[in-house]
UniProtKB/TrEMBL annotation:
It comes from Favolaschia claudopus. The chain crosses the membrane at residues 12-31. Its cofactor is heme. Keywords: Heme, Iron, Membrane, Metal-binding, Monooxygenase, Oxidoreductase, Transmembrane, Transmembrane helix. Coiled coil: none annotated. This is Cytochrome P450.
Length: 1057
């Protein structure tokens, strides 16, 4: 028997062995996993622990990042600072792919700015998801709304000319005053002091602190947030003492002007402004509760104030510096102004007629970038790009300076050349606008339209009135050369320099002086008006009797007010209205009602687009405007970038109100949110489930070698399994039949113009027995289908759950999550799950089937593509195994075939219509509020500029050097545009299912034409079914096993099911 000491020794030894073995095993696993992981992007060598902490300069980081990008020959580089990954993107391609097309919209923590300096109210620094503030900003600063501030911008530019006439040496002070006056008037409606205004001074100081503190690595507390807890008196805690000073400045900047606007509103003297308008709507008792509150208005106003304070000043300063260094550009711009405008000062109506001046504005934004490094983003989950691993939690920086000085985009980038933006005297749409200075993706600054308009009117006014040149020293000696250096910070501008402003002629001096006289008169009138309003408000507060005030005073005030209103209305009525986009001639009353065909509308729209040489068309059907977009550029600009006002849906009387499809999220008004809908993005269908279903398809093709195109079992089986967990028993399964019938009725009911009730919704009230009410009788039959489609499979899932036999599915997981829900909310949440499951089901059947049938038709008509694809698969698998999902990266040609199958005869040629919620302007055209907007996917995917020889099936168009070419736009418009695009829950399931099915069929079968009883080949038709979801008319073809080995693969594909 062992003694206690021996037992302890044995136990200790055993424990040590177990611990060492476990640690060794963990280290081996970690090492093995590390070897399998993708590499990080290239970057400078990292030191232990601190990484690149000492490599990143404290100022002008963007230049160091650009230098590293060239050194490592990579537009994506990786840095590490004390364990925090930093990803820097230095090309348009990388920022477009990651910051625009992927969800890289979160922000890092910003301990210094948000937690110590109190900037957590700023929408630009908030974590992603601040929809209320962003919506309020977008509604306030859209292209239509900012037109109401053009008078303020014009007045500010004219005042600047006046001040430059009297004291040109103080030009920087005058520019800052002008920018401050504009942003204060627009945001708060406050008239600032002529000089040394406290609001402007506070804003300038606040922006300067923001610019300093937002630079990555500027303060160590951003790397080690725990440092924020050290006492302010400790050595090294200078950042905390500085933060306290800056906190007061930030608080004053957001609180003081907002309080002044509220005070003016109480007195009844507040002019229109972002704050006053929003507060008025909020306090209006006749309106329903709004989506925002007073605090959010204050925060949005503060963000607008800070965003427009120094950026405009630096942009104008860069312009002045450019005119000094490049006098030939100044002369050319002035020549254009003189030719177009003549002997008057510029106005906003001249903007379209002065393309060279607009090019100067764009070059000013590009040449010396005001925001060289976009505010950092945060990656919320691990990602992969170009074979590099981007770790979750990485800080991502868009190097706007490097992009705007990329020689491939902008040759000779360090020279000021407005001509780079022009072609044949007009702005060249092929040259990328330098709007990345406003940020990237969803976090792009919504104040861009206001900034561009204010910079344009200031620049064109200065060019029209003054010659800008180098300053001369006081002794009349040599010329003072301006510096080329910039100030450090995230918002940067030229170091202070001297220059001269000389009036171009005596006529200019007279025009500026006339503006000065009008300005004095205007100020006097506005001051009198404010005095009168204050008197009246004081009378109200003191309950004075108005009868004691002389009637002559009231008469005079009334006459002045009526005259002012009349003059304003006259001016507005004389303002020319922008034209509508081109389109076919409209008949009285009915418009284009008889022009729009009942079927294949997309082809007619494409024909009109070519006929009118325009990718944006306007139609009118009995008073309803229809806008048709037929290019990627137009759909990107409107449905993607302006999605805030283009994401709503039309009423759909036939489909929603008569056929009962109101449950479909794709048809709902914008803003409908579902609690469990995000879960569907994870439920893309298990790979083994899809492999089994593809295997069953291969076996069925073997037993019936003459396959009739249109068999939807596989697609339906997968979709119903994902949505409901129901196993399909046969090809005539009742749920599949129900889905096919319901989807077919939906496709017919949604066609634009197919039913007059969509144009005249009141027709839905006529009795079904009346002549001409056939649509109501059809709708009644179809509504039964939609109701059964919604209820039956969902009820089956619930039954299986009650029995404890329900497999995982979207419905079962959603219902399972409801077990602990509040009983009051249970019904509504269950309804959400039911409706979302139906949307998944209907969206995944016909679209996948149509795409696969198109692929089969293409293989018959283009046998050379089939042979090439089969050769690619054979070289990879050697004919011994079926392709798997893991083979997709190694089979780019098959991916190209799948893409071409979606492009050649696309499943959804006309995307479900969007509704424009407020009037908009695009390319000089007016787009009326309430317009129905169509994305013509068929026209886009058959655009010869994007896809040469578009009517031929050519997978090679998507390849470059044997790999998928990222420069060729993917044809996934079938899933929609804009915010409606990301809501399609079946995209990834459909794409992966199509790929594995195509790869499996090509690996095992030759698809050939069918032979009739007499031995003659049956030519398949190339005709397609008209509808919202389109597919080939049913045709016959033959599937022949390619070899004995292929036959063995087919027979073994379905084992174990």
């Amino acid at each position: 028997m062992l003694s206690p000491v021996d037992s302890y020794a044995t136990l200790t030894t055993t424990t040590i062995i177990v611990i060492l073995t476990t640690l060794s095993f963990c280290a081996a696993v970690r090492y093995r996993r590390g070897r399998r992981r993708l590499p990080l992007p290239p970057g400078p060598r990292k030191l232990p622990i601190v990484g690149n902490l000492f490599d990143i300069p404290s100022t002008f980081q963007w230049k160091a990042y650009a230098k590293w990008a060239k050194e490592f020959d990579s537009d994506i580089i990786h840095l590490s600072v004390c364990g925090t990954s930093i990803i820097v993107l230095s090309s348009l391609e990388a920022t477009d792919m990651l910051l625009e097309k992927r969800i890289y919209s979160d922000r890092p923590r910003f301990p210094m700015l948000n937690e110590l300096m109190g900037w957590d109210w700023n929408i630009g620094l908030m974590k992603y998801g601040m929809r209320t503030q962003r919506r309020l900003l977008q509604e306030t600063l859209n292209s239509k709304k900012i037109q109401q501030y053009e008078e303020v911008e014009l007045a500010g530019a004219r005042k600047l000319l006046e001040r430059l006439l009297h004291s040109p040496e103080r030009w920087e002070e005058h520019v800052r005053q002008m920018a401050g006056e504009l942003i204060m008037a627009v945001t708060y409606g406050i008239q600032v002091l002529p000089s040394h205004d406290p609001y402007i001074a506070t804003a300038h100081e606040a922006v300067r602190s923001l610019s300093t503190a937002s630079l990555p690595g500027r303060f160590l507390v951003d790397t080690f947030p725990i440092l924020k807890f050290i006492p302010r008196w400790m050595p090294g805690a200078e950042f905390k003492r500085q933060a306290e000073k800056w906190t007061k400045v930030a608080r004053d900047m957001i609180e003081l002007p907002f309080a002044e606007t509220k005070r003016q509103m109480e007195c009844g003297t507040a002019p229109p402004s972002v704050c006053a308008n929003s507060l008025d709507a909020l306090l209006d008792p006749t309106q329903e509760p709004l989506y925002y509150n007073e605090n959010q208005i204050k925060h949005v106003a503060g963000a607008l104030f800070v965003g427009g304070a120094d950026t405009t000043v630096y942009a104008i300063s860069n312009f002045i510096l450019a005119m000094i260094w490049y006098p030939e550009v100044q002369k050319k711009a002035q020549a254009e102004i003189d030719a177009v405008i003549g002997r008057r000062l510029p106005e906003f109506a001249d903007r379209k007629e002065t393309p060279y001046v607009m090019a100067v504005v764009l070059e000013v934004l590009r040449w010396k970038t005001v925001g060289p490094l976009a505010l950092p983003r945060s990656v919320t989950e691990d990602d992969q790009y170009r074979g590099y691993r981007i770790p979750a939690g990485s800080v991502v920086l868009g190097n706007a300076w490097a992009i705007l000085h990329d020689e491939r985009l902008y040759p000779d980038p360090y020279t000021f050349k407005p001509e780079r933006f022009l072609l044949n005297g007009k702005l060249n749409p092929e040259v990328r606008s330098p709007d990345m200075v406003f940020g990237f993706g969803r976090r792009r600054c919504p104040g861009k339209p206001l900034a561009l308009s204010s910079v344009w009117i200031t620049i064109v006014s200065m060019l029209a009135a003054y010659d800008i040149g180098k300053a001369v020293d006081e002794n009349g000696g040599g010329v003072i050369e301006p510096t080329y250096e910039n100030t450090p910070g995230s918002i940067t501008g030229p170091v202070a320099f001297k220059c001269s402003f000389k009036a171009r002629s005596k006529e200019v001096v007279a025009l500026v002086q006339k503006v000065e006289d009008l300005s004095v008169s205007s100020n006097l009138c506005s001051n009198l008006a404010v005095i009168n309003l204050n008197i009246i408000s004081q009378c109200n507060m003191l309950s004075l009797d108005y009868t004691n005030i002389p009637s002559a005073t009231f008469a005079a005030v009334a006459i002045i007010l009526v005259s002012a209103v009349y003059a304003f209305q006259s001016r507005v009525s004389r303002r020319p209205e922008l034209p509508l986009p081109p389109g076919p001639r409209k008949l009285p009353v009915v418009g284009n009602l008889f022009d729009v065909p009942p079927t294949f509308q997309f082809k007619k729209f494409t024909q009109w687009s070519k006929e009118y040489n325009s990718d944006i068309l306007h139609l009118n059907v009995v008073g309803t405007s229809m806008i048709v977009l037929s290019s990627f550029e137009a759909t990107d600009d409107l449905l993607e970038r302006r999605s805030a006002i283009y994401s709503d849906r039309h009423r759909f009387p036939m489909v929603n109100e008569l056929m009962g499809w109101h449950f479909n999220i794709g048809l709902m008004k914008y803003g409908i949110k579902y609690t469990f809908l995000p879960s569907v993005f994870q439920l893309t269908g298990p790979n083994d489930l899809r492999r089994r279903m593809v295997g069953r398809l291969l076996v069925e093709a073997l037993s019936d070698s003459q396959v009739v195109s249109g068999n939807s079992r596989m697609a339906g089986e997968l979709t119903i399994a994902v949505a409901y967990g129901i196993k399909v028993l046969s090809s005539d399964d009742r749920y599949l039949a129900l889905a096919n019938e319901a989807a077919h009725s939906f496709s017919l009911g949604i066609i634009p113009g197919a039913y007059l009730v969509d144009t005249f919704p009141s027709l839905k009230y006529i009795p079904s027995w009346m002549p001409g009410a056939g649509f109501k009788r059809k709708a009644k039959t179809w509504s039964k289908l939609s109701r059964q489609f919604l209820e039956s499979p969902f009820a089956e899932t619930k039954r299986q759950m009650d029995l404890g036999i329900a497999p995982p599915s979207f419905s079962s997981e959603g219902l399972q999550a409801l077990e602990n829900a509040d009983k009051k909310e249970l019904y509504f949440k269950e309804l959400h799950v039911k409706q979302s499951a139906a949307a998944v089901f209907v969206g995944g059947v016909d679209t996948t089937v149509s795409a696969l049938n198109t692929f089969i038709l293409a293989m018959i008509l283009f046998p050379e593509v089939q042979k090439k694809a089969q050769a690619v698969i054979d070289s990879h698998t050697e004919g011994k195994v079926l392709p798997t999902f893991a083979d997709e990266p190694s089979l780019p040609y098959i991916t190209a075939v799948a893409k071409e199958s979606m492009r050649w005869e696309n499943v959804a040629p006309l995307i479900l219509p969007h509704l424009l919620t407020e009037e908009d302007e695009y390319r000089g055209y007016r787009l009326p509020a309430g317009s129905i907007v169509f994305g013509n996917a068929w026209a886009i995917l058959h655009d010869e500029k994007m896809y040469p020889d578009p009517h031929n099936f050519k997978p090679e168009r998507f390849l470059l050097n044997g790999k998928i070419n990222p420069a060729i736009r993917s044809p996934d418009t079938v899933f929609g545009f804009g915010r409606r695009y990301v809501r399609c829950p079946g995209k990834h399931m459909a794409l992966s299912s199509i790929w594995i099915t195509i790869a499996s069929i090509l690996a095992t079968y030759d698809i050939v034409k069918t032979v009739d009883e007499n031995g003659n080949l049956i030519e398949p038709t190339h005709e397609y079914i008209s509808g919202a979801i389109s597919g080939p008319v049913p045709f016959r073809c033959t599937f022949k096993p390619r070899s004995k080995e292929a036959l063995a693969l087919i027979k073994g594909a379905h084992k174990g099911d």
